[in-house]
Amino acid sequence: MNRFEYTRAGTVQEAVQALAADPAARFIAGGTNLVDLMKYNVERPGRLVDITRLPLDEIVQHAGGLRLGALVPNATVAYDPLVNERYPLLASALLAGASPQLRNAATTGGNLLQRTRCYYFYDEGTPCNKREPGSGCPAMTGVNRIHAILGASDTCIATHPSDMCVALAALDAVVQVEGPDGRRSIPFAEFHRLPGDEPQRDTTLQRGEIVLSVDLPDEDFSTHYTYLKLRDRLSYAFALVSVAAVLEMDGDTIRTARLALGGVAHKPWRNAEAEGRLQGKPATPETFREAADVILAEARPYAHNAFKVELARRAIVRGLSQAAAGTPQSQTDKRIA
Amino acid sequence: MAKPMLSESGSSAPPETIPVTLTVNGQERQLRVAPWTTLLDLLREELDLTGTKKGCDHGQCGACTVIVDGKRINSCLALAVQKDGAHVTTIEGLSTGSLHPVQAAFVEHDAFQCGYCTPGQIMSAVALIEEGRARSRDEIREHMSGNICRCGAYSNIVDAVEDVLKNKGSSFREAAE
């Protein structure tokens, strides 16, 4: 790990100022991803601005819904009574990710900002356009089993690793941020970005902006939902493909559908056309397969990840079936219902 | 307390250390730490509490699990300077004279082979029982999934944790008091 200066921020304003004052500074909260990346020399900050003492560690109800402070640990969100009552999809996704130890340390804001687990990004002995822009992408012709099938570019085929973010995408959360130019709200779909020709940028956050909270809309998402995660082992592994689904039903007919995929792209993947086609249709496997076909028509697999296209197709059908039936995937009993 | 360290570039001024107060196994310690010192390295290298193990050093194996302010975390991914004011319990702080019920259950069920992951397994199991969320064997496995055992003693580890959960609840609570 490189040597660095350490600053402990007492207020949000102090934190924003500390970052603006030092181009080599980075925020640190739980540190579960940043410290790991520093041990691999992937991140080499000149200064860490510790934000863990900021008053952003509460879950509060407000007019617009439920506000998750940026510093609320993942475990606290996962077991929060209100989250479980109204947004069990989010609790389920959180419990599908990481380990109890990591969920105790990792924060809501940090989870949004975790980096890809692409092997080449982590290995400073290889080129990587995300780590060193312009150096190349060995994943495209190398080992790319875990990589993207949707929305990738000629510079980067990395995936976003978070489970929580897939649920937040399906829930249409809003990220509140503050920076040198004040506060702004970012709809979740616009928070993460596709790699394009700037794969070094994972999000649309501007330099010096800090995440204050993640706001969940004031709706009841507790009946027809599921988080279905498929991976190489039953626990403590990143998703090869995951599906977050939330439906509103009129009997057996779908009134509205929200569907986000994890493990397949540089950001949680939504497809408005597919969601629109589900509206007003009977909740049958045929309907769900049609939606999957729309989503996966754009899929562009590489040498080792073509299996993800069929895996995603089946996961979408299974996830929508679970959500329609009101039988969400358990995160302890791993049998897929 | 702080040891001299060279900066990686081999140049510049000696690193600044920062005062930190930690209560480790009930004992308050006034320390000075370099900001890049992990809690794991502080415990092992400065405080000689070598029961907490360094396995992968990347938060993947759980050998470094300790309990900080009542919650189990990977001490390898925690910067000590960020834990100023915290209460830390390590494997050395569990027993007071006799074995902690979880330690005794690991012995009784032969829940290890080489033993390297065991302090982390035990700290994780102690926290799991305190959390009170795991009851069935499936749930114990899921809630212990952050602790890898490369010898493969998993079935006996689940036996040990299940035994404490089902049969030793009262003695566990007495030990915790």
From TrEMBL, chain A:
**Could you tell me the keywords of this UniProt record?**
FAD, Flavoprotein
* Highest rank taxon of the organism: Bacteria
Q: Which InterPro entries match?
A: CO_DH_flav_C, CO_DH_flav_C_dom_sf, Diverse_Substr_Oxidored, FAD-bd_PCMH, FAD-bd_PCMH-like_sf, FAD-bd_PCMH_sub1, FAD-bd_PCMH_sub2, Mopterin_DH_FAD-bd
Q: Where is the FAD-binding PCMH-type domain?
A: 1-221
* Pfam families referenced in this protein's UniProt entry, alphabetically: CO_deh_flav_C, FAD_binding_5
Molecular function as annotated in GO: FAD binding; oxidoreductase activity
What protein does this entry describe? Xanthine dehydrogenase family protein subunit M
- According to its UniProt entry, this protein's organism is Methylobacterium terricola
Q: What is the lineage of its organism?
A: Bacteria, Pseudomonadati, Pseudomonadota, Alphaproteobacteria, Hyphomicrobiales
